[in-house]
Write a structure and sequence with these properties.
globular
Length: 223
């Protein structure tokens, strides 16, 4: 590869995030969608959808994580630094003007511009309390159809609740309607979510035992 074909960096942004909920978000500025947590039953830590990138850490707490975002005109060379893990995925952005959020999306760390709208490759590398996230235009064979749809709108308070993941997952499913619009959770929703988590196992009973729990005793009394 000659010098003219070497990948060129287009820009970068460095900031810190607090991993209160164990993840942080980078999203398309024009969408302003509420951030969404990767599936609770997934081991994945890099989640890219239309207009949003969610990255999960390996720990939570007060220690800040250093984040560096980089934009390239083509696939960048491998980083010279040592990383504990690296993952790559595909995303789509409507304008390419992104917002980097700090803890729980409460404040923006800054804006980060890519080279316009379109499909992008995203490579995330994680080390000790630091992340490197690199963006570059997708290949001609990369299609927007391969990118998952935008995340649903989820109340950040719901995500931050200290409740079992199974219960939280049920409540998240019920926090939006069929069109993805937010809906207010009712007391019945909460009760049924906990019932799913704590539903007792039924004991095996004889097939002749009536469902109301009566059996021979009931027949003797009736007789």
């Amino acid at each position: 590869m000659n010098e003219a074909e070497m990948p060129e960096p287009l820009g970068h942004l460095e900031y810190e995030v607090m991993m209160w909920d164990g993840y942080f978000v980078i999203e398309e500025r024009s969408s302003w969608t509420d951030y969404v947590m990767p599936p609770f039953d997934s081991d994945g830590w890099l989640l890219t959808t239309e207009n949003q990138v969610t990255i999960a850490g390996t720990s939570q707490g007060l220690a800040p994580w250093e984040v560096r975002l980089e934009s390239w005109d083509s696939e960048p060379p491998a980083s010279a630094q040592a990383w504990n893990r690296t993952s790559e995925s595909l995303a789509y952005f409507a304008t390419g003007c992104l917002v980097a959020w700090t803890a729980r999306g409460e404040s923006a760390a800054g804006e980060f511009d890519l080279s316009g709208k379109g499909v992008y490759r995203v490579r995330a590398s994680a080390g000790d309390q630091r992340f490197l996230v690199q963006f570059w235009p997708g290949a001609d064979t990369d299609s927007r159809d391969e990118v998952p749809p935008p995340g649903r709108r989820i109340d950040p308070v719901l995500l931050s609740l200290n409740i079992p993941d199974e219960v939280k997952s049920v409540l998240i499913d019920r926090s939006t309607d069929g069109d993805g619009n937010p809906r207010e959770l009712t007391e019945q929703d909460i009760r049924e979510a906990y019932a799913t988590e704590h539903r007792p196992q039924r004991k095996n009973t004889d097939a002749t035992t009536p469902p109301d729990g009566t059996g021979d005793d009931h027949q003797q009394t009736a007789g």
